[in-house]
User: Which sequence fits this backbone?
């Protein structure tokens, strides 16, 4: 975790309440919706969250495959203000597992919960990064050759996730670890399969989707293949990333620039 | 004005009936004769019907139908689909009575359809309050039938008796106060002239019980608490007042042995689920099988699978009863694949442990002692920081029905090999609020784990074969005299395996998670198999 120290704000994030105080307040003041936003309220909101919400959204609020509950630590898709979050909590999201909070829960407690959810995501306008986004964009398509695998706004490769809005789902610390330790927490969509068919054919590719009776891959020539499992003689599954680590091959300032660039990739509001 | 309108309606309705040919091959209402207790006792002998949640009182989910069998199952095709109007997951296991199918729907509704076409006779929509306390989704798993009356559990903790011919309500009783966290999701079980039923709410600090209601009047005939009260034996297995909020819910259907006159029922986790500090002791009768006298509800014996549970390893499984050859003698056994990842064969006349072994990955126990009590691995309790334990909260298996085949003598269960970080939190009990004391977190994506259908020999507790599927399946299992095992998967397949070998014989992609158990039945000598996937009930038969 040596690279941590390069972000002054990470230490604040780690110490929870303080960072929330720094980042959360200005945003809250703007929409003036929440009177329950002290660090005490956020703490109360967290307690309630752990008790009522964590079983779906997770203790870390990062979401859960199994329940379909989304990550709440990035930009929310259904609310852009505190009032919006409040409404989701009061009304639920119709037709989904996201039910309203108990009808007799006082507004003050719902607002504490809103304060906690709001504090989970950092406000980008309050983050100062040492790198330069403009230089990062150049590294991305130049020295870094990142665009051979990744698309940004419709330009680039198909062998990695689309990064057009990556700044909304990854914070700077996470973006840095994506570059340095790509093999940690690789989503199943990006695992690699090496498949020998019952007809003797051999193919290798990204694991697009696997289910109980079939498997789909994209090979390096972007061909899409769908196998019934009965036609697979043997298969090897590699749960690592195809992306190399850039810890050695790019300079620290290149990495900082890339992080700044990627963190700036978000939907304009 | 009113008269004219109704005359017009009458005309509109009658024209098609006279003017058109039969829209279906059969429009004759099938003969619906009352379901007596004798018929329920011998439900296995009328395999054209599916008369209770688990098919028969012994819960084997074994059907004597063999028109669809290992040699022709590959030619099965879709006959009809019924779309449940409220979009939610369907855990329903329909009943079929003389050509009529009864399907429960989320949140607490019931519909009667023609079992040959899936077209509706009537529907009942249960009115619910808007401040429900439910832990795990708006589920209902099915109804029970006696005479011409259907019995249904509802999310507001009511038991409702409904006329099977019209959908009219005969009576509706509150089993418990939903505002205190009680709810009802499971199909009741008929025992003689009583409706035996459990309760959900183990995440809300309830005190669990098993009830029996007079089928005719809805009056409570007996109630047996799953946590002993003050002064009763076993109350001292709870420190302080913790027994009052100890959970031990009963949210899945049990089984009944008429010769022993015993009702067998599983109990859920002690509460708070993941923090055992405030409820020191074994916490009887949580995570146990309870055997109750069918007439009085009196506890005859109990077997506790997980004393002082701190991982939410509910014993909310359907008990399967069978008479098997064990060490040279015929033994009356109960088979149980538990959420704690151990499989048990137990003598059902006295509750004595016979044999037990893990059937899924587990790290919390070194094994079972000669009485079947787990020998714990020290230091596996949830912590404030989190500790990795197998099986995860959702268990080696869970509430979804296992099956047993009289042909193979094997027990079939949907199993999960996974692990999770368990956390502990300090919580005060508040009426009607969640009371769980922690939770869990997966450190890997679901695809990194394994699910499979496992066939277990109840004599040796060994796994005879397994069929791998994607995690994490929550489908139940049904077996048939056609040599088949029917079940589904988390990724929306419905499939048939050879019960003897585990070989896959047929599958179809239904597109949405299977959260229910299949049933099989026949109308006009044609065998059907039905399964709920997503919010649709699909019915299959052989190609015409």
Assistant:
């Amino acid at each position: 975790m040596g690279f941590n120290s390069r972000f002054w704000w990470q230490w604040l994030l780690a110490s929870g309440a303080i960072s929330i105080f720094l980042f959360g307040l200005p945003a809250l003041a703007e929409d003036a919706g929440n009177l329950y936003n002290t660090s005490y309220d956020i703490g109360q909101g967290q307690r309630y969250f752990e008790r009522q919400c964590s079983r779906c959204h997770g203790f870390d609020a990062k979401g859960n495959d199994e329940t379909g509950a989304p990550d709440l630590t990035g930009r929310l898709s259904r609310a852009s203000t505190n009032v919006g979050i409040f409404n989701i909590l009061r009304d639920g999201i119709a037709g989904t597992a996201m039910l309203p909070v108990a009808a007799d829960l006082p507004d003050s407690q719902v607002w504490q919960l809103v304060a906690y959810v709001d504090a989970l995501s950092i406000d980008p306008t309050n983050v100062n990064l040492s790198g330069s986004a403009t230089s990062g964009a150049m590294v991305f398509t130049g020295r870094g050759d990142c665009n051979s695998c990744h698309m940004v706004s419709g330009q680039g490769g198909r062998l990695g996730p689309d990064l057009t809005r990556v700044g909304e789902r990854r914070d700077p610390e996470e973006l840095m670890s994506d570059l340095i330790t790509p093999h940690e927490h690789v989503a199943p969509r990006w695992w690699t399969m090496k498949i020998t068919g019952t007809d003797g054919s051999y193919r290798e590719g990204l694991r697009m989707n696997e289910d109980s009776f079939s498997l789909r891959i994209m090979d390096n020539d972007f061909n899409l293949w769908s196998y019934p499992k009965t036609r697979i003689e043997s298969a090897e599954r590699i749960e690592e990333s195809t992306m190399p680590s850039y810890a050695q091959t790019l300079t620290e300032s290149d990495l900082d620039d890339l992080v700044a660039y990627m963190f700036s990739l978000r939907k304009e509001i | 004005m009113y008269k004219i309108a109704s005359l017009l309606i009458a005309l509109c309705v009658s024209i098609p009936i006279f003017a058109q040919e039969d829209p279906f091959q059969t429009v004759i209402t099938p003969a619906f004769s009352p379901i007596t207790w004798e018929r329920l006792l011998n439900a296995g002998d009328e395999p054209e019907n599916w008369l209770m949640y688990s098919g028969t009182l012994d819960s084997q989910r074994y059907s004597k139908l063999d028109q669809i069998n290992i040699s022709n199952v590959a030619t099965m095709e879709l006959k009809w689909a019924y779309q449940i109007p409220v979009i939610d997951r369907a855990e329903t296991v329909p009943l079929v009575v003389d050509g009529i199918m009864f399907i429960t729907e989320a949140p607490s509704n019931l519909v009667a359809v023609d079992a040959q076409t899936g077209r509706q006779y009537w529907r009942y929509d249960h009115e619910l309050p808007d401040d429900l306390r439910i832990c795990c989704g708006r589920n209902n798993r099915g109804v029970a039938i006696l005479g011409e009356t259907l019995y249904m559990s509802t999310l507001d903790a009511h038991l409702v008796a409904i006329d099977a011919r019209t959908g009219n309500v005969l009576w509706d009783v509150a089993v418990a106060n939903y505002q205190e966290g009680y709810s009802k999701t499971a199909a009741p079980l008929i025992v003689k002239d009583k409706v035996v039923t459990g309760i959900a709410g183990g995440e809300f600090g309830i005190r669990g019980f098993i009830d029996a209601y007079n089928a005719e009047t809805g009056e409570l005939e007996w109630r047996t608490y799953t946590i002993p009260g003050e002064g009763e034996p076993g109350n001292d297995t709870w420190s302080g007042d913790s027994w009052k909020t100890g959970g031990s819910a009963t949210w899945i259907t049990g089984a009944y042995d008429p010769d022993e006159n015993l009702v067998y029922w599983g109990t859920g986790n002690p509460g708070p689920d993941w923090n055992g500090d405030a409820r020191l002791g074994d916490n009887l009768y949580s995570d146990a099988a309870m055997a109750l006298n069918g007439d009085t509800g009196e506890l005859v014996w109990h077997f506790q699978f997980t004393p002082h549970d701190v991982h939410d390893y509910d014993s909310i499984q359907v008990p399967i009863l069978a008479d098997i050859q064990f060490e040279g003698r015929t033994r009356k056994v109960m088979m149980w694949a538990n959420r704690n990842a151990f499989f048990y064969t137990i003598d059902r006349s006295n509750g004595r442990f016979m044999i037990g072994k893990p059937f899924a990955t587990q790290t919390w126990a070194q094994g079972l002692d000669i009485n079947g009590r787990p020998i714990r691995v020290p230091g596996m309790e949830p912590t404030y920081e989190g500790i990795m334990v197998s099986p995860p909260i959702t268990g080696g298996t869970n509430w979804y029905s296992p099956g047993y085949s009289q042909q193979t003598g094997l027990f079939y269960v949907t199993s999960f090999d996974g692990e999770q970080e368990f956390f502990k939190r300090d919580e005060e009990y508040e009426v009607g609020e969640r009371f769980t004391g922690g939770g869990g977190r997966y450190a890997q994506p679901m695809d990194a784990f394994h699910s499979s259908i496992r066939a277990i020999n109840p004599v040796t507790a060994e796994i005879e074969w397994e069929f791998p599927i994607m995690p994490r399946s929550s489908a139940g299992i049904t077996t048939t005299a056609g040599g088949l095992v029917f079940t589904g998967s988390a990724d929306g397949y419905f499939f048939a395996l050879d019960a003897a070998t585990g070989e896959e014989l047929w599958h179809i992609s239904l597109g949405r998670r299977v959260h229910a158990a299949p049933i099989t039945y026949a109308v006009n000598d044609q065998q059907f198999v039905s399964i709920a996937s997503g919010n649709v009930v699909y019915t299959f038969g052989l190609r015409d």
Q: What stands out?
A: Chain A touches chain B at residues 50-52, 54-55, 58-60, 64-66, 95, 97, 99, 102-104, 187-188, 191, 210-213, 239 (CB under 8 Å). Chain A has three domains: 5-121, 133-185+244-263, 188-238.
